[in-house]
Design brief:
This protein is an alpha/beta fold and 384 residues long. The chain folds into two domains: 168 residues, Rossmann fold (3-Layer(aba) Sandwich); 199 residues, Dehydroquinate synthase-like, alpha domain, CATH 1.20.1090. The protein is built from 14 helices and eight strands. The chain has a six-stranded parallel beta sheet with strand order 1-8-5-4-2-3, sandwiched between helices. A hairpin with a 4-residue loop joins strand 6 and strand 7.
């Protein structure tokens, strides 16, 4: 097991009927900017619950944060917050709203050049405006981590930043807020959480059996319960299980002491940047190809994954690896998440653009830092 430091300061308030807890969780003397997305919270009753809990406090609203939050939109929120001298933020929505709010929190006090530098240069932050969350779409784990992914429409870029200053102070997780999600949104959340686990689990053995079992527990839960929720979307217990699974998938716990990959995410981000494909669906496309391309370096963990998650024990090693990849693709497809670029009409031109971009940035991806632009092209060609 590798050395690690683990710290997670987020106060989780989980369960039905917990939104009224905002009354005590949001500082009484705060001037709060409430951020949200396209307005679904005004249709499903969440907005009304939030505003009732914040009655008597100073509240400003900013809606319209996109599913892939855009820098251009978020800067309007930053300008509003600065002008109104906001002292607290409350993100009400899914991972995109929370990610966007993390950027807003970091950008409000930023005084070191263009705010995009927070993402492009990823400096250590010295401060950020505190914020809390009301989660309505389980997927990204952003409600319990310090990461954020932001897109810039002007340059067709999608960038990541992580900083301890943008951990939420608290996150309310009420599974009942997810009852109104569409089948596509629910399925995307399951895929996203699944691949988050795989990025931390499917690398190489470092004698961390507890972390492996924790990761496998989340994967098995998603495999077993995910399809059920699509058939029974108003089942509270299923909603609660999926919500907590998605949070645990990326709150840092299963990453303790183990190597991490994240190349599937980085390549997937470019598909979203160029074509606007749902984030989770880019992961469904790239992960099986990544597993196939790197079957040698990931051999031991793919075999373990196949046996423990899919009960694949027959055949030689190569046959079991092929079967594990096939079962992964079949799972994504069963959730309605296509696993081919052809399903989106994407071909060689986009693949070459992504390869050039990764190459020009000079980044090396993966747990072995062995994936550059040329390798990304090879992986994406397996997705055709």
């Amino acid at each position: 097991m590798q050395n690690f430091t683990y710290h997670n300061p987020v106060n989780i308030v989980f369960g039905r009927g917990t939104i009224p807890e905002l009354t005590r969780l949001v500082p009484q003397n705060a001037k709060t900017l409430v951020t949200y997305g396209g307005g679904s919270i005004k249709q499903n009753g969440v907005y009304e619950q939030v505003m009732k809990a914040l009655a008597g406090q100073q509240v400003i609203e900013f809606g319209g944060i996109e599913p892939n939050p855009r820098f251009e939109t978020l800067m309007k929120a930053v300008e509003t917050a600065r002008a109104e001298q906001v002292t607290f933020l409350l993100a009400v929505g899914g991972g995109s709203v929370i990610d966007g709010t993390k950027f807003i929190a970091a950008a409000i006090p930023w005084k070191h050049g263009e705010e995009w530098d927070i993402l492009a240069k990823r400096p250590a932050l010295s401060e950020a405006v505190p914020f809390g969350c009301v989660l309505t779409l389980p997927a990204t784990g952003s409600e319990m981590n310090a990461g954020s992914v932001i897109s810039r429409e002007e340059t067709a870029e999608k960038r990541v930043f992580t900083d301890s200053h943008v951990y939420p102070v608290f996150s309310i997780l009420d599974p009942e807020t997810t009852f109104s999600l569409s089948e596509r949104q629910t399925a995307n959340g399951i895929v996203d959480a699944f691949v988050h686990v795989m990025e931390q689990y499917l690398t190489y053995p470092v004698n961390a059996p507890l972390q492996d079992r924790q990761a496998e527990a989340i994967l098995l839960t998603l495999v077993e319960e995910g399809p059920k929720i699509l058939r029974d979307p108003a089942n509270y217990d299923l909603r609660a299980t999926i919500m907590w699974s998605a949070t645990l998938a990326l709150n840092g716990l299963i990453a303790c002491g183990v190597p991490q990959d994240w190349s599937t995410h980085m390549i997937g981000h470019e598909l979203t940047a160029f074509h606007g494909i749902d984030h989770a669906r880019t992961l469904a496309i790239v992960l099986p190809a990544m597993m196939s391309y790197r079957r040698a370096s990931k051999r031991a963990k793919i075999l373990q994954y196949g046996e423990r998650v899919w009960n694949i024990t027959d055949g030689d090693d190569e046959e079991r690896i092929v079967a594990a990849i096939a079962r992964t693709k079949a799972f994504f497809n069963s959730l309605g998440a296509p696993t081919s670029l052809a399903d989106y009409g994407i071909g060689s031109e986009t693949i070459d653009r992504i390869g050039r971009r990764i190459g020009e940035r000079g980044v090396r991806l993966g747990e072995h830092r062995d994936i550059g632009g040329a390798e990304a092209v090879d992986i994406l060609r397996l997705c055709l």
